[in-house]
Amino acid sequence: MSARGATKEAILTTSINLFNQYGFENVTINQICQEINVTKTAFYYHFKSKDELISEFFSFDNLVSNDDLLNILAVTDLAEQAIKAMEIFVKHIVRSGVEMTKENYRVHLRNQILPLDKSKSALLGSIIPALLQRAKDAGQIKNPASAEELLDTMCNLANGVILNWAMTGGSFDILEETRKRFEILLVVK
């Protein structure tokens, strides 16, 4: 990994740790830079703001690991593959915790962008719709809506469930709830 890549990853990791420890609003860019001994110039080379840093941390494509891909590909049912692909983001939300999730939504509301934006994600923009279409063609999804409409609705459902989970302090099993909602939408059972 290049020095620039290492610095970007170090800034991201350190920032998230500081945000979790002290709260997003209480951490300054100066603190982040001091913690990992980088200049503000180095910080701004990689991120324009703390908001951009949060968006990067929750970026759908940055969340996909090789294990996630293997987990998706291990399933032969195409509808299940699409659901597992969507669950990648939900699992990251759980790992990030309620407070970071709230901050993610605050940042996205402040910047008027969607947390699950298919125009900024190869997985959301092309792979999941292709899986949904193939599952429809195979008769595994009974909902007559187009693959694009199904994906848009899955993103909206996930955002709603995630927001509800964050607002209730993580009081329910978010993975179970999103899966249930996806299965109802896709009419897979």
What does this 3D model show about the protein?
InterPro entries: DNA-bd_HTH_TetR-type_CS, Homeodomain-like_sf, HTH-type_Tx_Regulator, HTH_TetR, Tet_transcr_reg_TetR-rel_C_sf. Keywords: DNA-binding. This is HTH tetR-type domain-containing protein. Residues 28-47 bind DNA. It holds the Pfam family TetR_N. By secondary structure, the chain is mostly helical. It folds into 2 domains: 3-50, Orthogonal Bundle (Arc Repressor Mutant, subunit A); 58-186. It is built from 11 helices and no strands. Helix 6 (66-73) runs antiparallel to helix 7. The protein is elongated and about 55 Å long. The mean pLDDT is 88.
Give, in order, the helices and strands.
Answer: HHHHHHHHHHH
Helical stretch tally: 11
Q: Termini, distance in Å?
A: 45 Å
Q: Pairing-aware structural class of the strands and helices?
A: mainly alpha
Tally of individual domains:
2
DSSP E strands, number = 0
* Assembly annotation: single chain
Estimated helix fraction = over 70%
Q: What's the pLDDT, averaged over the residues?
A: 88
From the spread of the alpha carbons, the general shape counts as elongated
> Rg from C-alpha positions?
18 Å
**What kind of sheet is the major sheet?**
none
Low-confidence runs of at least 5 consecutive residues: none
